[in-house]
Amino acid sequence: MRVAVTGAGGRLGSALVAALADAPFTGPAGPIAWDRAAFDLDAPDGIEARLDRDRPEVVVHAAAWADVDGCARDPGLAMARNGHATGVLASACAVRGLDLAIISTNEVFDGTLPDDATYLPDAATNPINPYGLSKLAAERAATAAYANSDGQLGIVRTAWLFGSPASDFPGRILAAATRARDAGQPLRVVADEWGSPTYAHDLSEAIVDLLAEDAVGGTHHIVNGGVATRADWARDVFSRMGLGVDIQEISVADWPRPSITPRRAILAPTPLPSGVPLRPWPAAMADYAPALLRAWRRSA
C-alpha cells in the first residue's frame, strides 16, 4: 500500500512516517513523506500534480497550523491553512478514489459537558475559537468532497498532542519552570482546564492499525487513557525531570491569552481494530521522558 503523509517534518507527521516505515503493508519503499515543499498549506493547489506523480493509494493529512493562539490572532489565515487547504486536498483525493485520513481536534467541541461526560464522535460540534472553527471547516470540506467518492474518508480527532520536537506542552512548561525557579518565583499553572495528553507515537501506531485493517473510514476519537489538568501534567513532567519548582494553581480566567480554549473537551475513545486501547498518558510520558530530558538539557 502506498501511503503519503503530509506535514512529514512535524510532530505527528514524523512519528507517522516512522511508524509506517515499520509497517509491512507499506512495502520496502516505505511511506511517502511530503514536507512543506511537497504540500504547502499556503499554496495547496499543486496537490493534483503531486498526487499524479507520487500515486499514493492513501493520504494521511497531518499538516496543520496548530498554533492555537496564532490562529486567534489571524482567523483568516487559520481558515485558509486548516480549512481551505484540507478541502483542496480532499477534493483532489476524492476524485481519484483515494482513501484519506485527516487529523482533527477535540477543540471542535465547546467543552461544556458535565464533569463525568465525554464527547462521542457524533456529538454536536460547537468550536469556541478560530483554531477549532478552522478544523471543523476542514472536516466539513472533506466530508462534502467524499460524498460521491469511491475512496474512504477518515476523521481522526485527538487532543493535547505531545512528542518530539520539544516545543510541546512538556517542553514549554519546563522552560517556564526554569525561568520561574531562577527568578525565585512560583510557576503559575492552570488547574481548571482538562484534557487527555496524547503521545504522537501512540497516535501514529493507532492510525497504522486503522490503515492495516482497511478501517480508516468514519470518525475516530484517539487519545491516550486518562484525564489531567494542565497543573497535573506539569507536576508529572517536573517529577520525571527531577525538577523542584513551586506551582501556584490558577484559573484559566487568570491566564489571559489570545485564544479561548474549551475547559473540558474530553473525547470518548473509539475502538481500534486491534481491540487494544491506547495506554494511560502517564505510561506514555514515561517513554517520552528520556527524549524530553535530553532536549531540556541541550536548551539549558
Provide a descriptive summary of the structure in words.
It is a single chain. This protein is an alpha/beta fold and 300 residues long. The chain has 2 domains: 3-161 and 195-221, NAD(P)-binding Rossmann-like Domain (Rossmann fold), CATH 3.40.50.720; 167-194 and 228-264 and 280-299, UDP-galactose 4-epimerase, domain 1 (Alpha-Beta Complex). 40% of the residues lie in helices and 15% in strands. The protein is built from 9 helices and 12 strands. It has helices at residues 11-21, 47-54, 68-73, 75-95, 130-145, 169-182, 200-212, 230-241, 281-299; strands at 3-6, 32-34, 58-61, 99-105, 153-158, 161-162, 187-190, 194-195, 198-199, 218-221, 228-229, 247-250. The strands form 4 sheets. The chain has a 6-stranded parallel sheet, sandwiched between helices. Helix 1 links the parallel strand 1 (3-6) and strand 2 (32-34). Helix 6 (169-182) crosses helix 8. It starts with a strand and ends with a helix.
